[in-house]
Each structure stands twice: as C-alpha cells, then as structure tokens.
Design brief:
Keywords: Amino-acid biosynthesis, Branched-chain amino acid biosynthesis, Isoleucine biosynthesis, Transferase. It catalyses: pyruvate + acetyl-CoA + H2O = (3R)-citramalate + CoA + H(+). GO terms for molecular function: (R)-citramalate synthase activity; 2-isopropylmalate synthase activity. Belongs to the alpha-IPM synthase/homocitrate synthase family. The model has no long low-confidence stretch (mean pLDDT about 90). The protein is an alpha/beta fold. The chain has 18 helices and 16 strands. It folds into three domains: about 260 residues, TIM Barrel (Alpha-Beta Barrel), CATH 3.20.20.70; about 100 residues, 2-Layer Sandwich (Double Stranded RNA Binding Domain), CATH 3.30.160; about 55 residues, 2-Layer Sandwich (Double Stranded RNA Binding Domain). Helix 5 packs parallel to helix 7. The strands form four sheets. Strands 1-2-3-4-5-6-7-8 form an eight-stranded parallel β-barrel, surrounded by seven helices. Strands 11-12-13 form a three-stranded antiparallel β-sheet, covered by helices on one side.
Length: about 525
C-alpha cells in the first residue's frame, strides 16, 4: 500500500500564478478528501494568518478519508525546541500529524542556516523528539537530500539517522532542486536502505522533467509515501504531478493507492483544482488532459474503432476522461462516421452525405476554419448537411457603435431579428463591441428561450491567419461557452473580426438550444 500525500495547498500554492483564498483552500480540501487522498498538507501555520485560519476552519469539514497535516521547519539554531515559535505554531494548529523539514546538504547548513553541521544534526533530533511528545505522527522531510548526498553522502545519511533515532514516523527523501536523474534516485535509495530501516517517502520537483519518473523509481525501491500536487503545481517548474503518479501506480505497477471508484474522479478533480486556482487546464496533460485521449489522424481513428488499445494505453473512463475524435482536413471517412455516431446520426448507409460532410469540412478549413476546438460548430455543420438542423432565429441586421464617453470607451450594439414569427429590435451596452453584440443578442432571445440565461462565455480567442495582408487579414474567432453541465467551442471566420465573432456567437447559442430540444 502506498499512501498519497498532497501538498497542493502549500507547495503547489508557491507556483507562479497560483493563489488560493481561505475559502479556496477549504473547497480543495473537500475535493481531495472525496478523491481519497490519505494526507493533505494544509499549509505552514507559522508563516501567515491565512494558514492559521485554515487549520481552525478545516476542523468543521468532518473529512472522511484524509488526515490534515501542518508543515514547518526544525527549530532555529541554538534555540530550545520548546521555545521555538515555529514548533509551537505547529502544535497550536491542532493536527495529529506534522511534517517538518530539515537540511541534508552542507551547502545549506553553512550558507543558508549559517550554522555548523553538528548544530544542524541537533536541530533535527531536538525538533522531532519534542514534537513526538505532542502529536501522533511526525514526518521528516529531508530537504535537498539527493543533492546533499551527492555532495557529502556521509553527512546526508547522518541527518536521516538523527531523524530515525529521534522517532520520526516517516523520512521523506526530497529532490528539492529537481535536478536528479532516475538512476541516481534508484542507486541513492539503495544506499539509504542500508542504514535507514524505517518507512521512506519521496518528494520530487520537476526542474529536469523527472519528478514523476523519480517518484515511480522511488516507489519501486520501497518508498511507501509519495508527495506531490494536483496538476504538478509548484514553485519554478512545479512538483511531482499526482494526476500522473496515481494512475501510473495503479495501472502500470499494480500498486494499491486509491479505489477504482476514486480513480474515475481524477480528471474531475484535476479540472476542479485548476478552476479554483484560476488556471487554464493543460490540454496535453497525461491521463486527465482534454487531449490525452484525442485522435485526429484518420488511420488512428479507424484503428481505435476496431480496437481502442491500438492507440490508447488505458481506457479513458478509468480516470474519468473521455475519448475525443478531432475533425480536420486530415479527417477521413472513419472520423466522420465516428463523430456522426456520437451525435446520434447513422450515416453508414449514406455515402453521399459522408462525402458532402468531408468536402464541406475541407473547404471550410481551407478558408481558415478550425474545428478541433469547435465541436459545437462541427455538430451544427453536420446537422445542416444531413437535414437535422432547424434555425432558431433569423438576423435582419445589426449595428455597433464604439465611442468615448466621459473618458471611457463604450460599445453599443443594436440588433434586429425575427424569432418564432416575431420581430425583435433591441440594443445593449458592452465592455467591447463583441460583448455588446452578445448582450444584445441574448436580450432579444432570452424572452423566447429562458434557458439561455444559464449559459455564459468562458473564453474568447482571436487568431490572425494571414498577417502579411495587414488590415485585410482573415480572422478566426474561437469562443468557448459553458452552462451548468457542459462546455463547448464554436468558431467563426471572416476578414471582419465582428462578423467572425458573430458567427461564433450564433453557433454557441444555437448549439445550446439544439441540446435543449432533445
């Protein structure tokens, strides 16, 4: 059994662009508990008021699976452990499990702590001995252990021996600078095992893109706790990514770390934490990314229809992901048939319609359309060709005025359209011309289609396709929209950015309405 130790809320929060409010931290904690993470490191209570509040508030969550851990350092040089404020704050946090880090590398002992190697050993021993009288579990993070070992193996091992003799429940070997190679991790742990007989953990950083690999190697060498973060968030290049480590342990090594039911939540948890952190999910992230099981080439698509394992190393459903077929100018008959089947359309017996879809698709992509990120527009396109599309409104015209009022730029859109036999003429303001157009369109339609109130635009991207033509360049607009359940993309292309935006906006709304009619 390997125990999972999540440090997203502490180490992960040190990543550039990551900032969790107190409420965010509590939300993420509940999500990690539902996943089944064994230990959640909540923060460093001696470093800031927010983390102190977290340890007070988290007690009311009544977690079912996770143990909350407070984090801190060994005592300061030449100070009694019982008088050290950092250690006192760990005890006041009220957690039964505490993790402290200490120095393994002579470079840090002398140049950072500004103390002697002997005093550093006492700091480790005194701190653990003191904490063991106050809490149930003490984990010792041997910071910079691998670098320290490569620099002075005898001293690095001595620091671990001090932690072991002082009663640490677990000693965690840390590749803090993230530059160690897997073969080094393997060989060094073998040497550690000659002296340290107790439980070992592993904590790696990703500066050499080896964090996950080094974690797996450590587990194969006997580590029984792995530390990491959701999506690999962390300082510099990040920490070991638990979203990759967990399925690797489960499916590749056959090591029990989470129940199968929990694994099926992994993609959801990954995206949830990204949303809370206000970061865009990494599409090509293994296992949980949107592109992890996406297929574009016609040969690949034909093969997975015959046998999914031909181009997928596991079933995407095992980690809560799904297979996606991307349509593009590379698409063949297999791609179109697969997508049509997803849409509930049987085209197997209609060769002419398949050919028409392929021809239309390739012509549109030649004009600048791209449907890989615009599955909503693609679905509408297919329905139009096969006669399953019903227009929800007809545009008579629109006008957009952009002016400067009282020192501020203001956009106003006026729109005329017919919907359900009635003509609507509305106007709305917006932060920009596209926002104003979106507001005016919704204002005209929501009376007839109240369900549109639950959808909103989540992303808006503009791409100039041929910049060498200057202001005559063709523009592609990709819009992402969401409602309470789903997210979909739509696309528009034109030499006029407003027209391109309009096309994408209309598709986003018509796609939503097409789903509601089912």
């Amino acid at each position: 059994m390997v125990k999972l130790y999540d440090t997203t809320l502490r180490d992960g929060a040190q990543g550039e662009g990551v900032s969790f409010s107190l409420e965010d931290k509590l939300k993420v904690t509940k999500k990690l508990d539902s996943l089944g993470i064994h230990y959640i490191e909540g923060g460093w209570p001696g470093s800031n008021p927010k983390d102190i509040s977290f340890f007070q508030k988290v007690k009311s969550l009544h977690l079912k699976n996770s143990t909350i851990v407070s984090f801190g350092s060994t005592r300061k040089p030449h100070k009694k452990a019982e008088d050290d404020l950092n250690l006192q704050m760990l005890i006041r946090s009220g957690t039964d499990t505490v993790t402290i880090f200490g120095k393994s590398w002579i470079l840090h002992v002398k140049n950072v702590l500004k103390t002697t190697p002997e005093e550093n050993l006492k700091m480790i021993s005194d701190s653990i001995t003191f904490l063991k009288t106050k809490v149930t579990e003490v984990f010792y993070d041997a910071e910079h252990f691998f670098d320290g070992y490569k620099n002075n193996p005898d001293y690095a091992i001595k620091t671990l021996k001090e932690a072991q003799d002082a009663g640490a429940n677990l000693i965690v070997l840390c590749d803090t600078n993230g530059g160690t190679m897997p073969d080094e991790v393997k060989n060094i742990i073998k040497e550690v095992r000659r002296v340290i007989k107790g439980a070992l953990g592993i904590h790696t950083h990703n500066d050499a893109e080896m964090a996950v690999a080094n974690t797996i190697v450590a587990v194969k060498e006997g580590a029984t706790q792995v530390q990491g973060t959701i999506n690999g968030y962390g300082e510099r290049c990040g920490n070991a990514n638990l979203c990759s480590i967990i399925p690797n342990l489960k499916f590749k090594l056959g090591i029990d770390c989470l129940p199968d039911k929990s694994l099926s939540m992994l993609a959801e948890v990954s995206h949830y934490v990204a949303e809370i952190a206000n970061l865009i999910p990494q599409a090509n992230q293994p296992y949980v990314g949107m592109s992890a099981f996406a297929h574009k080439g016609g040969v690949h698509i034909d093969a997975i229809q015959k046998h999914p394992l031909s181009y997928e190393h596991i079933s995407p459903e095992k980690v809560g992901n799904r297979r996606r077929i991307l349509v593009s100018e590379l698409s063949g008959k297999s791609s179109i048939l697969y997508k049509a089947e997803e849409l509930g359309l049987d085209l197997k017996k209609d060769e002419e319609k398949i050919k028409k879809v392929l021809k239309t698709l390739k012509n549109l992509e030649h004009q600048g359309y791209q449907f890989e990120g615009a599955e909503g527009s693609f679905e509408l396109l297919v329905k139009k060709i096969v006669g399953r599309y019903k227009k929800t409104f007809n545009l008579k015209g629109f006008r957009i005025v952009v002016e400067k009022r009282d020192g501020k730029m203001v956009s106003e859109a006026t729109i005329r359209l017919t919907v359900k036999g009635k003509e609507e003429h509305t106007a709305a303001l917006g932060d920009g011309p596209v926002n104003a157009l979106d507001n005016a369109l919704r204002k005209a339609l929501e009376e007839f289609y109240p369900v549109l109130k639950e959808m909103h635009l989540t992303d808006y991207k503009v791409r100039i396709l041929n910049p060498e033509t200057g202001t005559k360049a063709v523009t592609r607009v990709l819009i992402e929209s969401s409602d309470k359940k789903n997210t979909w993309g739509t696309v528009g292309v034109s030499e006029n950015i407003i027209e391109a935006s309009w096309k994408a906006l209309v598709d986003s709304i018509e796609f939503k309405l097409s789903k509601e009619k089912k």
